[in-house]
Write the structure tokens for this entry.
Amino acid sequence: MVKTSFTAHNQQFLLHLPKSFVGKRVEILAYTQEEILKENPDANPSFNFNTMKVSTKGFKFNREEANER
């Protein structure tokens, strides 16, 4: 896979592909970053993870009991 970003200074762009691409079907997409932001403004949504608190005060871990079969 080849991914590149650049600022266009004219309408032409020369892309060098790896030798492993020769003889294979290649798909090329061209879009501006502004287009992506307009289409999907929530691309990086912020999540609010609610957590629960558990008190482990006084808890004793018993390795033998945990490994019983």
Notes: Residues 12-43 form one domain. The CA atoms of residues 34 and 40 lie 10 Å apart.
